[in-house]
Amino acid sequence: MEFDELQKIWDSQNQRPMYMINEDALHNRIHTKKAKASHITNASEWLLIGVNAGAGGLLLGLTVSKVGSTVFMYLLAGWMLITALAVLVSRIRRLQRENRFDRSLVGELDHAIAMTTYQVRLSQLMRWNNLPIALLVIAGLLEGGKPLWFAFALVLFFILVNFASGWEHRFYQSRKLELETLQRKLQQG
What is the DSSP string of the chain? Predict the structure, then answer.
C-alpha cells in the first residue's frame, strides 16, 4: 500500500518507534487522491446529467411527434429527465457540503473519504437505475410490435451493462476502502 511506502524505517535499536510518517509526502498523496476523486466525481455527474437529459429530451421529442407512441416511451423519457434532475440536485448538495472540511491532513483525508463515499453511492444508484430503464425499453419495444429476438438481444445488452457497472462500483469501493484503511492507521498511531 502507498501509505506503507511513505513510512521510513526508524532506528529500532534505540527504543524509538519503528516507523515515522513523512507528513508532507502523506499530505501530498492524500491531496492527490482527493483531487483525483473530485475529478472522477465531477466527470461522472456531468456525464450522467448530460446523457440522461439529452436522451430523455430527445426521446420525449420523438415520442410526442410520432403518432401511436407507447406509454412506456413517455415513462422512459420522464424517468431519464427525472434522473438527470436528481443527479443535478445531488451535485449541488455535494458541492455545498464541501466547505465543511478544513485543509489540514485530517480534513483533506475526511474530504477524500466523503467524496469517494458519494461516488460509491452514486455508482450504486446508477447501477440500480439500469433496471427501470431496461424494463421500460423492453416493454416499449414489445408493445410497439418489435420482434421478440430484438427484446432478447436488449436483455443481453442490459446484463452486460449491469456487469460493467458492477465492475466500476467495485473499483470505487476499493478506493474508499484504501482511504479508510489509511485513516484507521493514522488514528492508531
Answer: -HHHHTEEE--GGGTS-SEEE-HHHHHHHHHHHHHHHHHHHHHHHHHHHHHHHHHHHHHHHHHHHSTT--HHHHHHHHHHHHHHHHHHHHHHHHHHHGGGS-SSHHHHHHHHHHHHHHHHHHHHHHHHHHHHHHHHHHHHHHHTT--HHHHHHHHHHHHHHHHHHHHHHHHHHHHHHHHHHHHHHHHH-
Take residue 147 and report the three cell numbers written for it: 420482434
Model confidence over 120-132: pLDDT tens digits? Answer: 999 999 999 999 9
Q: Is the dihedral of CA 47, 53, 57, 60 positive or negative?
A: positive
* pTM summary value: 0.80
Alpha-carbon Rg for the chain in angstroms? 23
CB 90 within 8 A of CB 122: yes
Q: Please measure the distance between the N-terminal and C-terminal CA atoms of the chain and give it in whole angstroms.
A: 17
Q: Is the dihedral of CA 93, 129, 181, 29 positive or negative?
A: negative
Q: What is the per-residue pLDDT for 21?
A: 67
pLDDT tier, 178 (very low <50, low <70, confident <90, very high otherwise):
very high
CA atoms of 171 and 93, how far apart (whole Å): 24
